[in-house]
Write a structure and sequence with these properties.
Elements: E1 2-5, E2 12-15, H1 20-23, H2 30-39, H3 43-52, H4 71-75, H5 86-97, H6 103-116, H7 125-142, E3 160-164, H8 168-173, H9 178-181, E4 187-191, H10 192-198, H11 206-214
Antiparallel strand pairs: 1-2, 3-4
């Protein structure tokens, strides 16, 4: 993990590793990057921007219109009615998908998760009940003051995730009231990698959860 301070807003942000691309990061996001750039324009850039506003007197006037992907051509519908071949479309789709997994492998993975009780089929009546239960848990979770939990300031997609110590799935299976699963005593912030590995596993027992909840009620 790498902690840095944004040069624009002076707020601390966390990066996942010490890789070169992260070490050179100066801003917490693209918005701060653009704001800093807008407030620190060089004189030469301002002169070019001024020249660009001169319309037909600008030596680059109309040049960009020759490119089919220019904003002006896209606005005029340059690509309207033009289609790519099926082979080219499939090639792009395969690249976006990354690693291609066989349909048989996907079915096996899904069936394994169903057998383990990780999730249910969409047409399973129990799945609909689980979705209702999960919404109730999220309702009670949102009522807590999460700033009281450790590592709250590190919360982020690549930082720390909010985790239910006794998982929502196990709570549903064991008929635990949503209010208890969503209570602050069942919440903690853990590293995003640890949270992904944890899945539906529980870091505390059901007995420990009830004891924690009963200690303050």
């Amino acid at each position: 993990m790498l902690e840095k301070i944004c040069e624009n807003c002076n707020i601390k942000f966390i990066l996942p590793s010490l890789a070169k691309k992260y070490i050179n990061r100066r801003f917490c996001g693209p918005l701060c990057s653009r704001r800093w750039a807008a407030n620190n324009r060089s004189v030469s850039w301002k002169e070019k921007a001024s020249l660009a506003k001169q319309g037909e007197n600008n030596p680059m006037f109309g040049v960009s219109l020759k490119h089919p992907n220019s904003l002006a051509n896209l606005a005029r519908g340059y690509w309207a009615g033009k289609t790519m071949s099926i082979e080219h479309t499939q090639k792009i789709s395969n690249k976006l998908m990354g690693r291609i997994v066989k349909e048989e492998s996907i079915r096996k993975m899904i069936q394994t998760k169903i057998d383990k009780g990780i999730f249910w089929k969409p047409d399973d009546p129990q799945y609909l009940e689980f979705k209702k239960y999960r919404r109730k848990v999220y309702y009670w979770t949102a009522k807590n003051n999460l700033t009281l939990l450790g590592n709250y300031e590190k919360r982020g997609k690549l930082g720390h995730h909010l985790d239910h110590k006794y998982s929502i799935t196990e709570g549903f299976k064991n008929n635990v009231p949503p209010k208890i699963i969503g209570s602050i005593h069942n919440l903690e912030f853990i590293d995003h990698k640890e949270n992904c590995k944890k899945g539906i596993k529980c870091s505390i027992t059901l007995k420990e959860l009830y004891e924690l909840f009963a200690s303050v009620t």
